[in-house]
């Protein structure tokens, strides 16, 4: 089971990541958000930053639908995110390995091309060619 501390640890370990000051977590690469706390909005009430839910960039509508339909116990969306390549993830319903995969994928989709090699070099086993 993952939590906000795991998001922080995994996202901040990626190259060129900037953490934006917020009431929860908010990580960007190349000026683009890739994972942040869900800002829950309820009619007539102030928004609440939910650190038990991560918003993840997924790239496109097909990937979004695949996650929503394939793992409905973990992923959801709201009308505010209709048409956007974003999903919400219940952190307590995912293990750290899966969370790392999701955060790394989100980073890859948002990072400028010149940054991608830096991640590949960081995760390549010693003595191998990352690219």
TrEMBL record:
Superkingdom in the source lineage: Bacteria
Pfam families: YjbR
InterPro entries reported in the protein's UniProt record: YjbR/MT2646/Rv2570-like (IPR058532)
The protein, known as: MmcQ/YjbR family DNA-binding protein
Upper lineage: Bacteria, Bacillati, Actinomycetota, Actinomycetes, Streptosporangiales
